[in-house]
Amino acid sequence: MRPRSLKKIPSLILSAVLVVAPLLFGSVYPWAYGLLEIGILAAFLFLLWFRPVKPSSVIILPKWGLLCLMVFVTWSGVQLIPLPQDVVKFIAEPIYDLWQLDFLSQEIVRPHALLTLTLYPYATASTGLLFLCYLLAFHLAFKSALLSDDSNGSHRVIISTVVSTGFVVAMVGIVQIGLNTKAIYGFFMPLHSAFFTGPFVNYNHFAGYLELAIPLGISVLAYAILSSARRPIVSSMLWLYGGSLSVMIAAIFMSHSRGGILSFCLVAFCQLFIITILFRKIKTHVPAIALLLIFFVILGIGSYITNWSRTISRFQVLFQQELSSNLRWQLFIDVFQMSKQLPLTGTGLGTFAVGYPPFKTILRQGIFPHAHNDYLEILAETGWPGLLLFLGFVVWVLNRGIVIIFWALSYSKQGDSGLIGRALLVTGCLAGVISLLFHGLVDVNLRIPSNALTWFVLCGLIVGLSHGFEKPTRK
User: CA-to-CA distance for 381 and 384, rounded, in angstroms?
Assistant: First the structure.
């Protein structure tokens, strides 16, 4: 018999990784995401030790959305398989042609050499290992929500960890902006980026992490208001949650990230609307009124302490600039044309920086390491099969989150705090997931290890929380 307390080790390790990953510059450097991978693999091994897989469960196929994610990760492994040159030429002739270029390989001119479907096997293997860890993190979060009770479960520890880390990240960013520092933490200056904010080397990724943390903070605040209606002692925590949210909202407004700010505002108000409707299921309407007042006070404080001068000017440039002259729009057109020539295979997961130059039509010089669009980058690197598999996983997760919210709105009786409380937590996870999906239209937060890890963890919590309840009967 293993001690009951030791069974929390996987969730504790996962929580520790969720804290460290964003603070280590978003874990964009190999040494940083190497630590992330070690932590996730260790947590998963502990989970297998404490809850070994039963032989009877191995033959049970996973849900279709999880199967999509598993096949997506496996696809990166398929891209690494050495194949005869004629096979590669038949499947993806542009890949075959690019392999002949001297800057890719000096020995590939040998007639009997084997080729891979990825232009840069090391990058594909490295990125594929990261996505494998995201898959394991999804499973860890799913198990923590599925096997925990509502009042004191591991999933609540994970949610609190993300909110607390978001507050720390926001404070680092605000202090840096206030002091006008020239380096992250006062000592580290990224060589490839002068647009760092907080611990992140790019302000868009800083905003992306806060898009994940703030909706969770709103749900935790709503849950605290719901609890304070029954236990007044909990109301003392409202000051802590409210203050943390004010700091994070101010930080995301200070980030100057147009995509981040728009995504947050759109999702946050939709989330607040759903939470207000959920509160109507309670006998008294006081909690709903309190939530609205507290949120608008928090929003006002966050807006008041924000320096809007640079943020407003960036939005003005966006509306004054013609779409055809926008650099990102030109890049999107190039990437879409690139995908037409490699519809089945792409250039290999993680190879955009190497695969894009031959298809580049933009006159601006320099390396484009990413497509500035999560979906187009997946399409360019894995083809339509990879993009459809990823979207299948996304649809599955969103469906599971929407289902439990629908149950809470349609089937719960007045005062059914168990289902309503769980739906409140799901709204926070779901809002964070959707916000980053919106932001993914103009950026690549899912290629930033800390943000991608947190995003997949929230997906796991959504699925786990939705499986914890059986469908209620209509009242």
Answer: 9
Which 8-state DSSP code applies to residue 153?
-
Tell me, rounded to whole angstroms, the distance of Cα 446 from its chain centroid: 6
User: What is the rounded distance in angstroms from the CA atom of residue 392 to the CA atom of residue 447?
Assistant: 19
Burial (CB count within 10 angstroms: exposed 0-12, middle 13-18, buried 19+), residue 181: middle
Residue 403: strand, helix, or coil: helix
Q: DSSP label at 444?
A: -
Of 65-74, 194-203, 286-295, the least confident: 286-295
**219 touches 427 (CB < 8 A):** yes
Between 40 and 368, residue with greater pLDDT: 40
DSSP 151: S
- Helices within 61-120 (DSSP H only): 64-78, 85-91, 93-99
Number of residues that this document lists for the chain: 475
Cα separations in angstroms, 345 against 131, 342, 354, 389: 18, 6, 15, 13
Residue 40 Cα distances to 12, 17, 35, 256, 290, angstroms: 11, 7, 9, 32, 39
User: Where would I find the beta strands (DSSP E) of 230-372?
Assistant: none
What is the reported pTM?
0.90
Residue ranges covered by each domain of the chain: 4-81+116-320+369-467
Half-sphere exposure of 227 (CA within 13 A, CB side): 17
**Residue 5: both structure tokens together:** 């307390």
